[in-house]
User: Fold this.
Amino acid sequence: MGTALIYDDEMTKYKLLWVDPACKIEVPERLTVSHEALVRTGLADRCVSVPVREATDAEILLAHSEEYLEAVKKTPYMSLEDLMEFTRQYGDVYFHPNIYHCAKLAAGAALQLVDSVMTGKVRNGMTLVRPPGHHSMRSAANGFCVFNNVAIAARYAKQKYGVQRVLIVDWDIHHGQGVQYCFEDDPSVLYFSWHRYEHQKFWPHLRNSDYDIVGKEKGAGFNINVPWNKVGMENGDYLSVFCHVLLPVAYEFCPDLVLVCAGFDSAIGDPEGEMCATPDVFAHLTHLLMNLAGGKLCAVLEGGYNLTSLAQSVCQTVQTLLGDPVPRPASLNSPCISALESLQCVRSAHKAYWSCLKHAADLPTSTISTKRIKLREGEETTEKGGEEEKDAEEKVWPEPPKRVTPPVCAALVLPDDVACPEGCERFSFSEDLDPLLASKLRESFLRDADDSTALITISSLIALTEKMEKNEICSGLALVRDVTKAMTSIVQHVTTVLSNRVLVVCVGDGNVPSHITEDRETLVVQMGSAQTDEQSCKYYIRVCLKKGCSDTSGFVQAVFGLLLPLGYEYDPSLVVLVRMPDSGVSDSLWQQLTGLLQSFALGHTLVLLQEEEKALVGLTASSLLGNPAPSLKQLQAPLTEDVEALERLRHRLQADWKLLQTTAPQTQ
Ligand SMILES: CC(O)(O)NCCCCN
Ligand SMILES: [Zn+2]
Assistant:
């Protein structure tokens, strides 16, 4: 299934008609540069084009009052003076004779997108709209917004399609208070927003935007505010919040639909956000949400005022929705102290509502302000935004990397009697093996030298890693007699001959030869149940789950709280996913993991299965092809001992792995 793109240039036909410094950045060119970039890069042609429509009165009234709608209806006939008068009653917004028409189209576009996804016409999609929506409230326009496009879409999806649970992710750099107010007592809509806050010094200066505003009555816990109290936040800050707050909660919530308030003023260069996250981070934010709700994801444009970073960020988002491999995360910095403070506060504020956060640390003793942290002499501060005084100098950043899709998406090394699933390519290295490599392989991996099939399999795997390294093949899957032997030979080859970093993820117990981690070119993370005295060390990390990998919620904890942050920090060029015999992991969780691990290494994931498990070939291949994994059930609470063990492990490792941090350093 494809990706919908909804755009109509009618929505460029309104603009600011008078002088207002607060509104001058919201210009029609925001839409034209975004759409033109999608056309120029060929991404628009790869999407399913869906027309806009006007939202009806009834649909607008899903989130707004009659008196507000009636008032807005009068604006097309107003004189300039009347428009200015009408505008004055609201904050940081402007009206225009054509804005009511465009606001109906923006809301209608969001509904068209929901229809396209909910009817299965497409898997996911994006709509480029203006005016944006997430600030507008029941009876008030605000922050360039007239109708709350995403709030209307959420109510519409519930009413028309019986959607039980909607997740709204708002990555715009402003707090969508309109969305928060709309659903604050509604447990069926989980609203997540991060936003520039600076301890309420930043617009819209609301006390209600802080981390302790968690929702009301039955809605308590279903409103998550992540305040950024400094500017200059980077990719590492954003990805940490996704891994340590949003994703664990989102998987516990288990939504039937994901709506994104896709504002790109959170990207570098934006005059509003003054953040430093690069446009390619939106490829990761999008990818990390694409296995929720069976892949049903609707992205609706909100803000974004630097026309260059806006266009790049829109392209990164759409290209990911189309299933292209995501770029490697540019060298991520550790989250800054202010971000860690916010992270700790949010997790603490929500520990009462989400079992995945039950063991989160308490609020920082004193909400640390960097002034009071006596930094030891010479210790570099990871504080950012110190240059508030300086005006935001013209930011420059590298073009996002070209994201080339390899000619072969998934190559499979299978015994002849096992069918190759649709969309994949059978791979066997049949040319005569060069004798040197053959004898090396024979003596190092194959005892019984005459075992020619094993030799062919191993040499095929090695040839496969070479083709992945050349980006001729994206991902691979192999049925092998002994996954540990196969893994060892692959790691040996890739780290010595190709001298690349390998992340090995072992699902299930079984001995993993520890020598492969001595060279630091390999990071091994093994998830299982066996309690071993063997301590985890920096490059060999064992996660012990009491009930093993059959415990989905414990496993998910380990994936988001440990595996993903490690993967982002390690930034391997190849991921080897090994399913150990009798791992006990469920099929849907296995597919979720296969999908999520494609966040790394340009999607170069090589999956190793025991040949007895050939029944898993089809569903594993499906995930390698980018099909969304089946939604997990709503997760029950992870076992306390598992969460505590994970916390201990994270605490021990965070000196080496900065993205594992979830709390701010204590003041002396
Ligand atoms: C859609 C939005 O969140 O980007 N609007 C920002 C309004 C800023 C007013 N100072
Ligand atoms: Zn914004």
Q: What stands out?
A: Confidence is low (pLDDT under 50) at residues 368-382, 385-390. The first strand starts at residue 3 and ends at 6. The chain has two domains: 2-14+24-371, 478-659. The longest helix spans residues 99-118.
